Amino acid sequence: MKRVWLLATVLLALSTSETAAAEQRFIVRSTLGLPSLQQFCLLHSCSVVRGLDGTLNELFLVTTSDLINPNLFLGTLRLVPGVVDAELDQVLTIGSGFGFQGQRQRDRRRH
Predict the structure, then answer these.
(1) How far apart are alpha carbons 108 and 92 in whole angstroms?
(2) How confident is the model over 84-100, as pLDDT tens digits?
């Protein structure tokens, strides 16, 4: 019985570690369209997640594994004819209303 629990624990740990692998995200502007960018990704172990510009079909979110060097990937991607620009996606945290809160407090004091 202990072996079954041990085996189940090991399998669970292995399966979650694989899905927990982080991804690098890139914003790609291309005149090639989705099918050509997907073909590039088949050859370079990346995936096109979705289009970012609605129906224009020029701006895409592309992901790769963390194991791939982002600068090397960007350099390779920028050499593809039809790729206008590519950059690493940056996550920004925006504060919520710090400037407005101070302004409201000053307005209350005046009244």
Answers:
(1) 32
(2) 999 999 878 887 655 55
**All domains of the chain, ordered by start, with CATH?**
21-92 (3.30.70.260)
Task: Band the pLDDT of 11: cuts 50, 70, 90.
Answer: low
More confident of the two residues 53 and 28: 28
SS3 readout for the chain: CHHHHHHHHHHHHHHHHHHCCCEEEEEEEECCCHHHHHHHHHHCCEEEEEECCCCCCCEEEEEEECCCCHHHHHHHHHCCCCEEEEEECCCCCCCCCHHHHHHHHHHHHHC
